Amino acid sequence: MKASGVLTGGLVLTLCSSTLAKGIDEFTFSCETLTIQRSDPIMFPGKTAGHVHIVAGGTAFQQTMDIDTATKANETTCGVVIDKSNYWIPQLYHRAKNGAFELVENDGNVVYYLNRACNYTEGATSCDGSDGAIAPPAGLRVVAGDTNRRTYDDADFAQRATTHMCIGEDGSSSETNNMPNKPCAKLRSQVFLPSCWDGQNIDSKDHRSHMAYPASGDYNSGVCPKSHPVAILSIFLEFFFNTHPFPDHDNWVYSNGDATGYGLHGDYINGWEDQVALGNAMKTCTGPKLLNDPKCSLTKHQKRPLTPVKQTPEIAASEEEIGQNGRVLQLPGHNLAKS
Ligand SMILES: *[C@@H]1O[C@H](CO)[C@@H](O)[C@H](O)[C@H]1NC(C)=O
Ligand SMILES: *[C@@H]1O[C@H](CO)[C@@H](O)[C@H](O)[C@H]1NC(C)=O
User: Where is each DUF1996 domain found (predicted)?
Assistant: First the structure.
């Protein structure tokens, strides 16, 4: 932000309010898994998807989702009741010695919303002094990562944005973009969604080009590019898998046949019931109690605790065998497990 901006009323107000009632720059909540099924209403609308996804959030999740289907869900698996969004990534499998595949059990999911990116400003290379990423627009659909990727380019923010946290039996943790090459008590599959929006489209033909990663900074913070000038709250997804029973990490493979880990991807449909509440979260969910603060716009009308809740989808998944009753001979969709 230019120095002259210091004298504008808006910024003075920001400085005051940040001294008096400090805003937060992130909030987070947990979500139970809603369903594991071969569906992807963004990439394969109305059809069976190419591979199995693990899905959290609103109970309206189904193969055909209109612009407001998510928002109208009756319930959510997430701790914040007004969040009927859906979040999903490919399911993790373990390839047994006989070549069959078994589901790696999910061990919880966490969603973060972060105030990290800022609007495009000519010449700006950092967000110093400016804040105010807006809520993701109603109905926004986002795809991050690429199911077909099997190689890695560290210079590409989009590729840096999908990561794996290997949590060891001793509690230590290490992060890689590839699938960990050592045993992990838990594997945390992580996707940081792009934070910059074109300001106009809530989806696009390739489901990607309406969104972008920052032009400066890194995949998880910085100034938005001119092509996608509007900074929205960044969304970061963590899906935990219990890999403790499977120390043979070479046999971990995602449902899309990817054992490299570079084909990890994450999808989002905005289903927040109250956009204004979402936009006010960083200013109101403050103090030591965060989401339990009585002023918190996200939870002030919430009756139940922030504990995530088990739910089933309103529209049941097809009966396809995806490993829920024991090992399957092939990855559903016949995705070859190539590494
Ligand atoms: C960024 O741009 C959006 C869309 O024009 C606007 O609503 C928002 O207030 C801007 N943010 C800041 C901090 O100026
Ligand atoms: C969801 O809510 C609608 C409207 O209240 C109701 O008709 C329907 O039975 C509910 N579905 C489930 C699965 O609870």
Answer: 40-272
Give the span between the Cα atoms of 302 and 67, in whole angstroms.
25
Give me 42's structure tokens. 């963004």
273: containing domain? 4-284
Determine, yes or no, domain membership for 251.
yes
- In single-letter form, the type of residue at position 316 comes to A
Q: What is the pLDDT of residues 107-120, one digit of tens each?
A: 999 999 999 999 99
74 CB less than 6 Å from ligand 2?
yes
Residue 248 lies in a domain: yes
Which pTM does this prediction carry? 0.92
- Residue of 134, 198, 202, 232 to mutate, ligand 1, most atoms within 8 A of C-beta: 134
Indicate the top mutation candidate among 34, 62, 74, 77 to test ligand 2's pocket, ranked by most ligand atoms within 8 A of CB: 74
CB proximity list for 325: less than 8 A, separation 6 or greater = none
- Specify the number of domains making up the chain: 1
| pLDDT tens, residue by residue, 135-185 | 999 999 999 999 999 999 999 999 999 999 999 999 999 999 999 999 999
